[in-house]
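TASK: fixed-backbone design
INPUT:
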């Protein structure tokens, strides 16, 4: 098998088909496009959990691990309060490297008021770069739980910030020595700094009362996330590609490596489905967050990408474009 998320057909065939034992405490379980699980802990409250590994970069894995998991929890409408962290290290790792990872985890947790409540750390020969897996735990009132599969035809689709932020930052960090021979230093520095924007918890909390569904754009990029959003709810989409924001640094770096920014890992970009997209955009803009309506959910089976008079159709997500440049990912 190739690196990255397994194809959706294989996920359904080999994984989800084997997840069939049901417990009444579980109010939200495993399905395509759903990044969290939810378990009833009281009549009016559920506990939300999500887990993610970081494997695509050896840099900032601690911070990324916490942020990505916190993003998933926020997309359920829940407040994250704890994480469990598993750290797998190659046998040539120095103690200072472990200290850097754990210090980054601690700083990220302080920023979000999260407690590390447990985990596991070991050195193993089965990995060749550090692997950090973070499981987050949050809570939300049962009637406030947001689900990926709740979108109805006619609802607006909103995006925040820009696509390809995380992928651009990773490539700029990992391939900086090469890129700096082709591009200005300040452009590469700007691309690296995109990792400061991958947290979407503030905007998710800001508009969770207006949203029907939230989905953070991760592996597979905006095209993959849009497919998952539509697949989870069984709706069609009409998306105006020209309204999808992509920054010039991402365009330049993606063109250099001949990769598609619309299929590049994009943490920092949040997809929002709701009845009044313009009102959602206004609230986000009023709080200093870039956002725009990029399309609508439809009652068709078609998931259309509209670029002027050119119309194409979304495809089942494939391997993330990051793999064309470096050998791993989140």
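OUTPUT:
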């Amino acid at each position: 098998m190739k690196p990255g998320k397994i194809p959706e057909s294989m996920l359904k065939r080999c994984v989800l088909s084997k997840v069939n034992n049901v417990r009444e405490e579980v109010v939200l379980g495993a399905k395509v496009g759903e990044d969290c699980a939810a378990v009833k802990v009281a009549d009016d409250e559920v506990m939300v959990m999500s887990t993610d590994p970081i494997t695509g970069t050896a840099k900032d894995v601690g911070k990324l691990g916490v942020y990505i998991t916190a993003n998933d929890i926020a997309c359920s409408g829940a407040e994250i309060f704890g994480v469990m962290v598993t750290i797998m290290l190659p046998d040539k790792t120095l103690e200072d490297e472990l200290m850097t990872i754990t210090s980054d985890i601690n700083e990220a947790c302080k920023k979000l008021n999260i407690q590390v409540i447990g985990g596991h750390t070991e050195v193993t020969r089965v990995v060749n770069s550090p692997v950090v897996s973070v499981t987050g735990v949050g809570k939300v009132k049962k009637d406030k739980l947001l689900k990926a599969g709740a979108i109805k035809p006619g609802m607006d689709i909103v995006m925040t910030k820009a696509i390809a932020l995380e992928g651009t930052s990773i490539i700029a960090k990992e391939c900086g020595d090469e890129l700096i021979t082709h591009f200005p230093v300040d452009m590469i520095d700007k691309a690296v700094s995109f990792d400061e924007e991958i947290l979407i918890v503030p905007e998710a909390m800001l508009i969770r009362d207006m949203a029907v569904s939230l989905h953070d754009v991760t592996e597979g990029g905006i095209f993959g996330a849009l497919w998952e959003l539509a697949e989870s709810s069984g709706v069609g989409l009409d998306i105006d590609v020209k309204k999808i924001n992509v920054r010039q640094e991402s365009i330049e770096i993606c063109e250099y490596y001949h990769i598609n920014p619309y299929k590049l890992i994009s943490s920092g970009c949040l997809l929002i489905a709701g009845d009044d997209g313009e009102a959602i955009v206004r609230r986000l803009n009023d709080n200093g967050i870039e956002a725009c309506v990029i399309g609508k959910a439809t009652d068709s089976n078609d998931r259309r990408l509209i670029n002027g008079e050119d119309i194409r159709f979304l495809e089942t997500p494939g391997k993330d474009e990051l793999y064309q440049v470096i050998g791993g990912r989140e």
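COMMENT: Residues 259 and 324 are 7 Å apart (CA to CA).
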